[in-house]
Amino acid sequence: MTGDEWVGELQDKVIRDMKRIYSPKVMKLWKNPQNAGSLDYPDGYGQVTGPCGDTMQVWLRVQADVIIDATFWTDGCGTSVVCASMVTVMAKGKTLEEAARIDQQSVLDELGGLPEEDRHCALLAANTLREAIGCVRPKLAKGS
Ligand code: FES
Q1: How confident is the model at residue 10 (pLDDT cuts 50, 70, 90)?
Q2: At CA 137, angle to CA 134 and CA 139, rounded to 5?
Q3: What is the CA(5)–ligand 1 centre distance, in A?
Q4: What is the position in ligand 1's atom list of the atom closest to the CA of 52?
Protein backbone atom coordinates (compact mmCIF):
# COMPACT_ATOMS: atom_id res chain seq x y z
CA MET A 1 0.00 0.00 0.00
CA THR A 2 1.37 3.43 -0.92
CA GLY A 3 1.38 6.39 1.45
CA ASP A 4 -1.42 8.06 -0.55
CA GLU A 5 -3.58 4.92 -0.40
CA TRP A 6 -2.99 4.69 3.36
CA VAL A 7 -4.02 8.36 3.83
CA GLY A 8 -7.10 7.80 1.62
CA GLU A 9 -8.15 4.76 3.68
CA LEU A 10 -7.59 6.66 6.90
CA GLN A 11 -9.74 9.57 5.67
CA ASP A 12 -12.50 7.15 4.61
CA LYS A 13 -12.41 5.57 8.08
CA VAL A 14 -12.64 8.97 9.82
CA ILE A 15 -15.65 9.92 7.66
CA ARG A 16 -17.33 6.52 8.31
CA ASP A 17 -16.80 7.01 12.06
CA MET A 18 -18.17 10.57 11.90
CA LYS A 19 -21.29 9.42 10.02
CA ARG A 20 -22.01 7.04 12.90
CA ILE A 21 -21.89 9.93 15.38
CA TYR A 22 -23.25 12.93 13.46
CA SER A 23 -26.51 13.48 11.55
CA PRO A 24 -26.53 13.91 7.75
CA LYS A 25 -27.26 17.62 8.22
CA VAL A 26 -24.20 18.07 10.47
CA MET A 27 -22.03 16.21 7.96
CA LYS A 28 -23.35 18.37 5.12
CA LEU A 29 -22.57 21.66 6.91
CA TRP A 30 -19.23 20.29 8.10
CA LYS A 31 -18.19 19.55 4.51
CA ASN A 32 -19.71 22.72 3.09
CA PRO A 33 -20.34 25.44 5.72
CA GLN A 34 -22.83 28.10 4.61
CA ASN A 35 -22.39 31.85 5.21
CA ALA A 36 -18.76 31.84 6.38
CA GLY A 37 -17.04 35.24 6.42
CA SER A 38 -17.81 38.78 7.47
CA LEU A 39 -20.12 41.52 6.16
CA ASP A 40 -19.02 45.07 5.40
CA TYR A 41 -20.95 47.73 7.34
CA PRO A 42 -23.21 45.24 9.14
CA ASP A 43 -26.38 46.33 10.95
CA GLY A 44 -25.63 43.89 13.73
CA TYR A 45 -22.49 42.26 15.05
CA GLY A 46 -21.91 39.91 17.95
CA GLN A 47 -18.80 38.29 19.35
CA VAL A 48 -18.84 35.78 22.18
CA THR A 49 -16.10 33.62 23.70
CA GLY A 50 -17.44 30.44 25.25
CA PRO A 51 -16.19 28.72 28.41
CA CYS A 52 -14.25 26.37 26.10
CA GLY A 53 -12.16 29.39 25.01
CA ASP A 54 -13.46 29.43 21.44
CA THR A 55 -14.66 32.70 19.96
CA MET A 56 -17.53 33.10 17.53
CA GLN A 57 -18.67 36.15 15.56
CA VAL A 58 -21.94 36.81 13.71
CA TRP A 59 -22.66 39.66 11.30
CA LEU A 60 -26.22 40.65 10.32
CA ARG A 61 -27.75 42.71 7.55
CA VAL A 62 -31.27 43.87 8.45
CA GLN A 63 -33.97 45.54 6.40
CA ALA A 64 -37.32 46.60 7.87
CA ASP A 65 -36.79 44.38 10.92
CA VAL A 66 -36.00 41.30 8.78
CA ILE A 67 -32.58 39.63 8.69
CA ILE A 68 -31.72 39.55 5.01
CA ASP A 69 -28.14 38.30 5.43
CA ALA A 70 -26.16 36.62 8.19
CA THR A 71 -22.56 35.40 8.25
CA PHE A 72 -20.19 33.95 10.81
CA TRP A 73 -16.61 33.26 11.76
CA THR A 74 -15.19 31.09 14.53
CA ASP A 75 -11.78 29.90 15.69
CA GLY A 76 -13.45 26.93 17.34
CA CYS A 77 -13.86 23.23 16.69
CA GLY A 78 -15.50 21.67 13.63
CA THR A 79 -18.81 21.48 15.47
CA SER A 80 -18.67 25.20 16.27
CA VAL A 81 -18.35 25.88 12.54
CA VAL A 82 -21.42 23.70 11.92
CA CYS A 83 -23.44 25.38 14.69
CA ALA A 84 -22.45 28.91 13.68
CA SER A 85 -23.31 28.14 10.08
CA MET A 86 -26.66 26.67 11.20
CA VAL A 87 -27.68 29.79 13.17
CA THR A 88 -26.96 32.02 10.18
CA VAL A 89 -29.05 29.75 7.94
CA MET A 90 -31.85 29.72 10.53
CA ALA A 91 -31.74 33.51 11.06
CA LYS A 92 -31.97 34.53 7.41
CA GLY A 93 -35.47 35.61 6.43
CA LYS A 94 -36.65 35.84 10.03
CA THR A 95 -37.67 39.01 11.85
CA LEU A 96 -35.38 40.07 14.70
CA GLU A 97 -38.09 38.95 17.13
CA GLU A 98 -38.29 35.48 15.57
CA ALA A 99 -34.51 35.10 15.30
CA ALA A 100 -34.07 36.10 18.95
CA ARG A 101 -36.05 32.98 19.86
CA ILE A 102 -33.37 30.72 18.28
CA ASP A 103 -31.80 28.97 21.24
CA GLN A 104 -29.48 26.05 21.91
CA GLN A 105 -32.32 23.53 21.66
CA SER A 106 -33.68 24.85 18.36
CA VAL A 107 -30.15 24.69 16.87
CA LEU A 108 -29.77 21.12 18.13
CA ASP A 109 -33.22 20.19 16.76
CA GLU A 110 -32.44 21.73 13.38
CA LEU A 111 -29.13 19.82 13.20
CA GLY A 112 -30.75 16.51 14.15
CA GLY A 113 -28.89 16.50 17.48
CA LEU A 114 -25.26 16.49 18.60
CA PRO A 115 -23.29 14.28 20.97
CA GLU A 116 -23.39 15.46 24.60
CA GLU A 117 -19.81 16.79 24.49
CA ASP A 118 -20.62 19.02 21.47
CA ARG A 119 -23.91 20.47 22.68
CA HIS A 120 -22.26 23.57 24.16
CA CYS A 121 -21.16 24.59 20.64
CA ALA A 122 -24.86 25.08 19.79
CA LEU A 123 -25.25 27.27 22.89
CA LEU A 124 -22.30 29.43 21.84
CA ALA A 125 -23.81 29.86 18.36
CA ALA A 126 -27.25 30.82 19.73
CA ASN A 127 -25.67 33.26 22.21
CA THR A 128 -23.56 34.88 19.49
CA LEU A 129 -26.60 35.36 17.26
CA ARG A 130 -28.49 36.95 20.16
CA GLU A 131 -25.55 39.25 20.84
CA ALA A 132 -25.65 40.40 17.20
CA ILE A 133 -29.43 40.91 17.37
CA GLY A 134 -29.01 42.90 20.58
CA CYS A 135 -26.64 45.21 18.72
CA VAL A 136 -29.20 45.89 15.94
CA ARG A 137 -32.11 46.86 18.15
CA PRO A 138 -30.76 50.14 19.56
CA LYS A 139 -29.82 51.22 16.03
CA LEU A 140 -33.36 50.52 14.74
CA ALA A 141 -34.88 52.35 17.69
CA LYS A 142 -32.78 55.40 16.77
CA GLY A 143 -33.87 55.00 13.14
CA SER A 144 -30.32 54.78 11.80
S1 FES B 1 -15.47 23.23 21.60
FE2 FES B 1 -15.67 25.39 21.79
S3 FES B 1 -17.36 25.82 20.51
FE4 FES B 1 -17.03 23.72 20.19
Answers
A1: confident
A2: 120
A3: 32
A4: 2
Ligand 1 neighbourhood includes 50 CB (under 6 angstroms)? yes
124 in ligand 1 pocket by Cβ < 6 Å?
Answer: yes
CB 112 within 8 A of CB 23: yes
pTM score: 0.89
Question: Could you tell me the domains of the chain?
Answer: 24-142 (3.90.1010.10)
d(CA 52, CA 124): 10
Specify whether the CB–CB gap between 110 and 129 falls below 8 A: no
Is residue 144 predicted with pLDDT exceeding 60? no
Give the chain's count of helices (H) and strands (E): 6, 3
